[in-house]
C-alpha cells in the first residue's frame, strides 16, 4: 500500500538579504517515518522548519503539510501538529502540571492525558514543582509532553536533545520510537549522529543551505565503504595536512581536525603508499581499523 505523504518540499529556497539560508531543498516524508534533518550549526535546519510551518515565506519553491501549502495552514492542520522549538518557552513560575494544563485547556484535552504524559516522561514526581527548579533535561521533556498533548499526527522537533543527560536521552528516544510504532510521523532536526542513526529511517544532510545527501543511515554508511582506517597523527604544522591532502589527491580521505585523525576507507586504492606519504609528512601516533559510522559520512560530506 502506498504511504501517505505527510511533508513535501520542492525547490525550497530562502535568503536573508544576500545570505543564502536554504537553497533548492526537495524531499518528502511519508506517514510513519522518523525523518532526520542533519546539518552543522547554521546549515539551515531551523529556517527549513520555519518555512514548513509557514512562519516564514520561501523566496522560491513550496512546502506542503498533509497536502496543504505551508503558507495557508489553518486550524485543522495545526491540530494535527506538535512542535518543539529550540528555545525553551515554558512558564517557569508555574509547576509542570500547570504548564501542561494551560495548553490542555486550550486544546480541550482531558487532564488524564497530562498524567499519562508526565508518567511516560518520568516527571510525575516533579509535577507540582515550579519549572524554574527543573533541570535542562526535565524542561525539555516537559516541552515534548506539551507538544504531544493534542496527540499529533506529525511531531516536529528542533534539536530536542541538545546537551541533555543520558536519562533524558533514553526517555526521549524511547518515546519517539514508541510514537513511530503508533504510526506517527516525526521530523527530527539534530546534529547528533548517534541519535540520527538510532532513530531515523531516512536522513537528509544539509550543509550551507543545500541538501547534500538523502538516504537511509545504512545506505549512507555503505557509500563510504564498510571499514575505515583511522590514522591519528601529530602534524608539525597545519600546512602539512594540506600537503598530505594534495599529494594523496584522494577524494576518499577525510581529516578530522578535532581529533587530529585522517580517515581513509580500508579499500582505498593504493592504501599502503598513502600511509607511506602520511608518514613522510606527519608522526603517526596510532592506526586502527573500524566500521564506518554516520559521523564519518557527515564529516566527509560537510568538510569545507
Ligand atoms: P543551528 O543548528 O545553529 O540552529 P540551523 O541549521 O538551524 O543552525 P538556521 O538557523 O536556519 O541554521 O540558519 C541558516 C543560516 O541563515 C545561518 O547562516 C544563519 O546565520 C542565517 N540566518 C538565520 N536567521 C537569520 C536572520 N533572521 N537574519 C539573517 N541571517 C539569518
Textual characterization of the structure:
This protein has helices at 45-52, 75-78, 96-107, 111-120, 136-148, 166-181, 193-199, 217-222, 238-248, 271-281, 294-302; strands at 5-16, 19-30, 34-38, 60-65, 68-69, 81-84, 154-158, 185-190, 202-207, 210-215, 227-235, 254-256, 261-265, 282-291. The mean pLDDT is 90. The chain is globular, with a radius of gyration of 22 Å. The chain starts with a strand and ends with a helix. It folds into 2 domains: 5-222, P-loop containing nucleotide triphosphate hydrolases (Rossmann fold, 3-Layer(aba) Sandwich), CATH 3.40.50; 225-302, 2-Layer Sandwich (Alpha-Beta Plaits). The longest helix is centred in the middle third of the chain and has 16 residues, at 166-181. Helix 3 crosses helix 4 and helix 9 packs antiparallel against helix 10. It has a 6-stranded mixed β-sheet, sandwiched between helices. A 4-stranded antiparallel β-sheet has the order 2-1-4-5, covered by helices on one side. Strands 12-13-11-14 form a 4-stranded antiparallel β-sheet, sandwiched between helices. Strand 7 (154-158), helix 6 and strand 8 (185-190) form a beta-alpha-beta unit. The chain is of the alpha/beta class and 304 residues long. The structure holds adenosine-5'-triphosphate.
List keywords for this structure.
Rossmann fold; binds adenosine-5'-triphosphate; 2 domains; 304 residues; four-stranded antiparallel sheet; six-stranded mixed sheet; alpha/beta; 11 helices; Alpha-Beta Plaits
Amino acid at each position: 500500500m502506498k504511504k501517505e505523504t505527510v511533508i513535501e518540499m520542492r525547490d525550497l529556497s530562502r535568503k536573508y538579504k544576500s545570505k543564502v539560508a536554504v537553497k533548492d531543498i526537495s524531499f518528502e516524508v511519508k506517514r510513519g517515518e522518523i525523518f532526520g534533518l542533519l546539518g552543522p550549526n547554521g546549515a539551515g535546519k531551523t529556517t527549513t522548519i520555519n518555512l514548513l510551518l509557514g512562519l516564514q515565506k520561501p523566496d522560491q519553491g513550496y512546502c506542503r503539510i498533509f497536502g496543504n501549502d505551508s503558507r495557508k495552514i489553518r486550524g485543522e492542520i495545526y491540530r494535527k501538529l506538535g512542535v518543539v522549538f529550540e528555545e525553551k518557552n515554558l512558564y517557569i513560575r508555574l509547576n509542570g502540571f500547570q504548564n501542561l494544563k494551560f495548553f490542555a485547556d486550550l486544546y480541550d484535552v482531558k487532564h488524564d492525558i497530562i498524567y499519562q504524559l508526565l508518567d511516560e516522561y518520568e516527571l510525575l514526581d516533579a509535577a507540582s514543582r515550579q519549572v524554574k527548579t527543573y533541570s535542562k533535561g526535565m524542561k525539555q521533556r516537559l516541552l515534548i509532553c506539551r507538544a504531544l498533548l493534542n496527540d499529533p499526527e506529525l511531531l516536529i522537533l528542533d534539536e530536542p536533545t541538545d546537551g541533555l543527560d543520558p536519562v533524558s536521552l533514553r526517555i526521549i528516544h524511547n518515546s519517539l520510537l514508541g510514537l513511530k510504532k503508533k504510526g506517527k510521523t516525526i521530523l527530527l532536526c539534530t546534529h547528533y549522529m548517534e541519535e540520527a542513526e538510532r532513530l531515523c529511517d531516512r536522513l537528509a544532510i544539509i550543509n550551507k543551505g543545500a541538501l547534500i545527501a538523502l538516504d537511509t543511515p545504512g545506505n549512507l554508511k555503505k557509500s563510504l565503504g564498510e571499514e575505515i582506517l583511522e590514522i591519528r597523527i601529530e602534524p608539525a604544522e597545519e600546512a602539512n595536512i594540506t600537503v598530505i591532502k594534495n599529494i594523496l589527491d584522494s577524494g576518499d580521505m577525510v581529516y578530522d581536525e578535532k581529533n587530529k585523525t585522517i580517515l581513509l576507507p580500508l579499500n582505498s586504492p593504493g592504501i599502503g603508499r598513502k600511509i607511506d606519504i602520511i608518514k613522510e609528512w606527519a608522526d603517526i601516533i596510532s592506526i586502527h581499523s573500524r566500521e564506518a559510522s554516520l559521523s564519518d559520512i557527515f564529516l566527509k560530506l560537510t568538510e569545507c
